[in-house]
Design a protein that fits this description.
The structure is a single chain. Helix 7 links the parallel strand 12 and strand 13 (275-278). It contains 9 helices and 15 strands. The model has no long low-confidence stretch (mean pLDDT 92). The chain folds into 2 domains: 6-131 and 307-336, Alpha-Beta Complex (Quinone Oxidoreductase, Chain A, domain 1), CATH 3.90.180.10; 134-280, Rossmann fold (3-Layer(aba) Sandwich), CATH 3.40.50. Helix 2 (134-146) crosses helix 3 (162-173), helix 2 (134-146) crosses helix 8 (288-300) and helix 5 (208-215) packs parallel to helix 6 (230-238). The chain is globular, with a radius of gyration of 20 Å. The chain is an alpha/beta fold. The chain has helices at residues 124-131, 134-146, 162-173, 185-194, 208-215, 230-238, 268-271, 288-300, 317-326, and strands at 6-12, 25-31, 39-48, 75-85, 95-101, 105-109, 113-115, 153-156, 177-182, 199-202, 220-225, 239-247, 275-278, 308-312, 332-336. The strands form 3 sheets. Strands 3, 4, 5, 6, 7, 14 and 15 form a 7-stranded mixed β-sheet that branches. Strands 10-9-8-11-12-13 form a 6-stranded parallel β-sheet, sandwiched between helices. A two-stranded antiparallel sheet has the order 1-2. Helices cover 26% and strands 28% of the residues. Residues 18-335 form the Enoyl reductase (ER) domain.
Length: 337
C-alpha cells in the first residue's frame, strides 16, 4: 500500500461559546512525519460523530480526557485501515478502531487501537456504527449498570439517537415497558412504529411531566439519561423505590460554558433509594468483544434495527457534527472518507 506524504485534516481554531459553528474548525493540509517505533500510519475510513465531541472543545477541568488545544487536529472515534506498520502488533491492510483525528491519514500508537472485524455479510459502515461506540455504550449502560428485569418500566431520553435507540431496543429484548423521548413527531413515530417502543414523547410539544405520567402509569424503574436538565428532573419525580438512573450523557448542558444547576429533584435519590451511576464507555474497552458478539447477532437476526445518517467526504465533518445539536440528524451520524 503506497504511503502518502500529505494529509488533509480539520484544525481546531476557535472555542465555541455555545454552538459549534463554521469558524470552530478549518480544513488544512499537513506533511506526514516518518513513523517512530510502535506507531501506525492509518487511513481513516469512517469517522463517528458523537455528542461527547463537544465537551472536548471547552476548557472544563473535570473531563475524562484532556480537552483539545487550539491549533490541534480535531479528534473523534474512527474506523481505520493500516497503511504502514512499525509495530509487531498489527499488519498493513488490517482494520482497526481507535480515537483518531478528523483527517485523511493519521499516525497512531499501536497500543491505542483495537483490531476491528466486521461480521460476515454486514456492511462495514453498519458494523462500525453499531459495534464501535454506540452499541457498547447502550449495552453496558443498560445491562451492566441498570440490570433490567421483565415488566419494569424504562425511560430513554434522546431515544432516536444512536445510543438511545439501541438502549431502548435492548430494554425491549429484556421484556420491559419502554418509553422514549425525542424532538419531533416523526422521530417519535419511528421509535414506536419501527423500533417497537411502547410509547414516545415529543418533548418540544408536550408537558413532559404529564406525558411521562401517562406513558409510565406504574412509575419509572430505569432512567437511561442522555439529555439532562428539566427532562431528568421530571423523570426523577416519577422514579420508583430502588430505581436505577444511568447517566450516559447530558447533551442539553454541553453547549454551556458554565455549570448548569440541578437536578432539583436530586433528593429523590434518598427518598426513593435510587442508584445513580455515570460511566465512560472507554473505560470498558476490554469488554467490547463480548458485547459486540451480542450486538452483531441482534442486528443479523433482526432483533434490533439501526439507522445510519452518513455524510460523504472529509469536507463535511464540521457540518455533520453540528447536526447532533440542531436535531437535523436522522440516525447514527458518520462521515465516510
Amino acid at each position: 500500500m503506497t504511503s502518502p506524504s500529505h494529509s488533509q485534516f480539520w484544525r481546531f481554531d476557535n472555542r465555541p461559546e455555545a454552538n459549534i459553528n463554521d469558524s470552530t474548525f478549518s480544513l488544512q493540509q499537513r506533511e506526514l512525519p516518518p513513523l517512530e517505533e510502535g506507531q501506525l500510519l492509518v487511513k481513516n475510513l469512517i469517522l463517528s460523530m458523537d455528542a461527547t465531541n463537544r465537551l472536548w472543545l471547552g476548557e472544563r477541568e473535570e473531563l475524562y480526557m484532556e480537552p483539545i488545544s487550539l491549533g490541534d487536529s480535531m479528534r473523534g472515534f474512527g474506523l481505520c485501515q493500516i497503511v504502514k506498520s512499525n509495530s509487531r502488533l498489527y499488519q498493513e491492510g488490517q482494520l482497526v478502531s481507535s480515537l483518531t483525528e478528523w483527517a485523511e491519514y493519521s499516525i497512531l500508537d499501536a497500543n491505542a487501537v483495537q483490531a476491528f472485524v466486521a461480521p460476515k455479510d454486514m456492511p462495514l459502515d453498519l458494523a462500525f456504527g453499531v459495534m464501535s461506540i454506540a452499541g457498547p455504550t447502550a449495552y453496558h449502560g443498560l445491562l451492566n449498570i441498570a440490570h433490567p428485569r421483565p415488566g419494569e418500566t424504562v425511560v430513554v431520553t434522546a431515544a432516536s439517537g444512536a445510543v438511545g435507540c439501541l438502549a431502548g431496543q435492548i430494554a425491549k429484548l429484556s421484556r420491559c415497558h419502554v418509553v422514549g423521548t425525542a424532538g419531533s413527531d416523526a422521530k417519535c413515530r419511528y421509535l414506536v412504529e419501527e423500533l417497537g417502543f411502547d410509547a414516545a414523547i415529543n418533548y418540544r410539544d408536550a408537558n413532559i411531566e404529564d406525558a411521562l405520567r401517562q406513558a409510565c402509569p406504574n412509575g419509572i424503574d430505569i432512567q437511561f439519561e442522555n439529555v439532562g436538565g428539566s427532562i431528568l428532573d421530571s423523570c426523577l419525580k416519577l422514579m420508583n423505590n430502588n430505581g436505577r438512573v444511568v447517566i450516559c450523557g447530558l447533551i442539553s448542558m454541553y453547549n454551556s460554558a458554565q455549570n448548569v444547576p440541578g437536578p432539583y429533584m436530586f433528593h429523590n435519590s434518598i427518598m426513593k433509594r435510587l442508584k445513580i451511576e455515570g460511566f465512560v464507555i472507554l473505560d470498558h474497552a476490554a469488554e467490547f468483544p463480548a458485547m459486540q458478539r451480542y450486538l452483531a447477532q441482534w442486528i443479523q437476526d433482526g432483533s434490533i434495527k439501526f439507522k445510519l445518517h452518513s455524510h460523504q467526504g472529509i469536507e463535511h465533518a464540521s457540518t455533520a457534527l453540528q447536526s447532533l445539536y440542531t436535531g437535523e440528524n436522522n440516525g447514527k451520524v458518520l462521515v465516510k472518507l
